[in-house]
Amino acid sequence: MAEAALLQSRPDRTRKHSAGAVSFSASGGQLPMEVCERAARDLTDWRRTGRGVLELPFTGLAFKDLLAEAIASLRALLHVPANYRVLFMQGGASAQFSLVPMNLLRGKRAACYADSGYWSRRAIAEAQRYCHVEALAPQRVPDGAAEAAYLHVVSNETAEGRQYRIFPDAGALPLIADMTSDFLTRPIDISRFGLIYASAQKNVGAAGLTVVIVREDLLGSAYPATPSAFDYAVQARNDSLYNTPPVFAVHLAGLVLRWLLSQGGVEAMQGATERKSAMLYAVIDGCGGFYRCEVAPEERSQVTVCFKLADEALTRRFLDEAQAQGMLHLAGHSRIGGIRASLYNAVREEAATALADFMRDFARRRG
Fold first, then answer.
1. Which CATH number fits domain 42-261: 3.40.640.10, 1.20.1250.20, 3.50.30.30, 3.30.465.10?
2. How would you class 286 by CB atoms within 10 Å of its CB: exposed for 0-12, middle for 13-18, buried for 19 or more?
3. What pLDDT does residue 367 have?
4. What's the mean per-residue pLDDT of the chain?
5. What is the pTM assigned to this prediction?
6. Which of 202, 231, 259, 276 is catalytic?
7. Selection from 366, 361, 323, 362 nearest residue 17 by Cα
8. Percent of the chain residues past pLDDT 90, beyond the cut
9. Has 202 been annotated as catalytic?
């Protein structure tokens, strides 16, 4: 609780990556300035003990308490029911593309996957190594539920800028969700899902840590060849300490989670995310065709705003001028192009306002 008070007492500032610069990167989200400052101090003097956090043995009581505090903060933010386990694992979300079927097929030979974009197709391709995959339209209810083990969705597609506002009906199947890029940006009903996973580098902290929230009845039937470190049941029995965890990434996640609680939780983040994205979509829709968003309004992501310029020859100039004004990492996905603004939790509303103003000015000057 003392740490939460320290975080809350610091002024809330936009994270600066260089003088006056803000990152809209899709791959690694910004961190709140106060979290970065606290983490920097903890590298050499954790909790005023005179030793750095990286020196903590993961088998010791100090790190176990740190891990338990982080998990408790996450449970509080998302109101995680008692019959779900929260695991902190390694390997990133892409590793979960394999670990989900390895852990959750439970003797079945098929699984359903909603095909909503680039990342769902990456998940499908990996799952096909382990089972037959029935690829479905995003909101289609699975047929033949008795033959399938689960329905998998990607909640927010960062390449195309498409997001589930309402999750599909999984019927009798457990609903599995990759929530990496919109995790903790809005309230969710955990009880609707069999398992949720999210790598940390967007909204939880740093790469190297993946959060898994899994319903207890799904544990214990992993494919026999599953490595023990990647068996959800093994990690659950060992409180995520079966193997050496990424100590600093766990610590950083704990700081971010307490920061989120101090800011009003996911409900406050949802309001801010909606306001930030609304500013940008208002410019896109009101520019007379200078910018265009190829996603239907009801499917547009509130976290990842993707658009193109009608004159694509101006894309490079847009990116260069934005960078000159301190707005970094706005290039779209390498396979899609265009512009992409990722509005993760630590991107302040002032940064979204500055980007919207720049977009209007650029359209006025170049249109």
1. 3.40.640.10
2. exposed
3. 85
4. 93
5. 0.92
6. 202
7. 323
8. 87
9. yes
Active site residue 178: yes
Per-residue pLDDT for 348 more than 60?
yes
Catalytic residue among 42, 46, 178, 182: 178
- What is the 3-state secondary structure of the chain? CHHHHHHHHCCCCCCCCCCCCEECCCCCCCCCHHHHHHHHHHCCCHHHCCCCHHHCCCCCHHHHHHHHHHHHHHHHHHCCCCCEEEEEECCHHHHHHHHHHHHHCCCCCEEEEECCCHHHHHHHHHHCCCCEEEEECCCCCCCCCCCEEEEEEECEECCCCEECCCCCCCCCCCEEEECCCCCCCCCCCHHHCCEEEEECCCCCCCCCCEEEEEEHHHCCCCCCCCCHHHCHHHHHHCCCCCCCCCHHHHHHHHHHHHHHHHCCHHHHHHHHHHHHHHHHHHHHHCCCCCEECCCCHHHECCCEEEEEECCHHHHHHHHHHHHHCCEECCECCCCCCCEEEECCCCCCHHHHHHHHHHHHHHHHHHC
pLDDT of res. 17: 40
Enumerate the CATH 3.90.1150.10 domain ranges in the chain, comma separated.
15-32+265-366
Q: Which fold has domain 15-32+265-366?
A: Aspartate Aminotransferase, domain 1 (3.90.1150)
* Rounded Cα distance, 51 and 250, in Å: 17
Comparing 135 with 13, which gets the higher pLDDT?
A: 135
* pLDDT (tens digit per residue) in 57-99: 999 999 999 999 999 999 999 999 999 999 999 989 999 999 9
Residue 148 in contact with residue 142, Cβ under 8 Å? yes
Residue whose entry in the numeric block shows the structure tokens 């993760």: 344
101 and 130 Cβ atoms separated by less than 8 Å: yes
The percent of residues in the chain predicted with pLDDT above 70, rounded, is: 94
